[in-house]
Amino acid sequence: MTFLCSLLLAVSSSVGMPQPDTNTPDPILIDVRPDTVETQEIVLETPAIKPRKFIPCIYDLPYSWTRSVPNKGRLMANTGVLFGAGFTMLGILQILPEDATAWNKAEIAHTNPFKRWWKHVKAGPTWDKDKSIFNQVLHPYAGAAYYMSARSQGCNVWQSWAYSAFISTIFWEYGIEAFNEVPSTQDLIITPLGGLILGETFYILKRHIVSHDYYLLGSRPLGYAVAFIADPLNEALGYIRGNRAHGSASRRGLTTNEISMSFSPMLAASPTGGFTKGFTISLTM
């Protein structure tokens, strides 16, 4: 009986227990050690970007004779425009009658221009006989326009004066005008001197206008007109490249101007008899 039970237990164990599958292939082992993985480092080179230098607008800064923050790019553009305007003015003057310019039209027509230029340069300077409208009005105003071309672009008083003297003397008197006449002694003195005195007056006047957001005597059209007379080149080019003086009052938070200005006519007796007419400008800074 005992033997029979043992035999049945052995048979039931062999039937109920699953047998290993001898046909299953052995597992495949994959080596994933880190030293078998290939890596590639990619380096992207970016060009260095040079930061642009900030150049403040001269009208955003307090008034100063000596502060120098020149905008060289705009100043070079102004110079190019002045050169072009100078040649244009030369052409206009050649059209005017001979008694208006005192130019020898016969010599201009029959003489080689470079020989004529060298002859005039060697002969000058001389005291000219131009009309007073040229010597006493247009030349000082031209000097002031040259002066403002540099002053409004951040040059100080002395830099602007040197710029005005360079344009009026080297470019105009001994440059293109010397093709038609001997350099003028009056022009060599009056133009840069007028540029300094009248030019700095124009600069102060324009600061007054700019600090009131281009209002003058309560009128913006009047402010724009006077600003254009005081600084024709920068105001005209401002419509093309942008006028940095616009908005200066709000950037500085001004409600009143830092400069008070008064204008009054003047009539004084002359020592030689008669009266001398003029005007005075009073500035409080």
Task: Provide an overview of this structure.
Helices cover 54% and strands 7% of the residues. The chain contains 11 helices and 2 strands.
Termini distance? 134 Å
Strands, count: 2
Low-confidence stretches: 1-17
Largest sheet: 2 strands, antiparallel
Secondary-structure-based class equals mainly alpha
Oligomeric description of these chains: single chain
Shape: globular
Helix content: 40-55%
Output the number of helix runs.
11
What is the element string, with H for helices and E for strands? HHHHHHHHHHHEE
Query: Whole-number average pLDDT?
Result: 79
Strand content: 5-15%
CA radius of gyration: 42 Å
Arrangement of strands in the largest sheet: 1-2
Attribute tags:
285 residues, two-stranded antiparallel sheet, 11 helices, globular, mainly alpha
Give a brief outline of the structure.
This protein is mainly alpha-helical and 285 residues long. The protein has helices at 2-16, 72-95, 98-101, 105-110, 113-123, 132-151, 157-176, 185-211, 220-230, 232-241, 248-252; strands spanning 260-269, 275-284. 54% of the residues lie in helices and 7% in strands.
What order do the helices and strands come in, and which of them pair?
Layout: H1 2-16, H2 72-95, H3 98-101, H4 105-110, H5 113-123, H6 132-151, H7 157-176, H8 185-211, H9 220-230, H10 232-241, H11 248-252, E1 260-269, E2 275-284
Helix pairs in contact: 2-7, 6-7, 6-8, 7-8, 8-9, 9-10
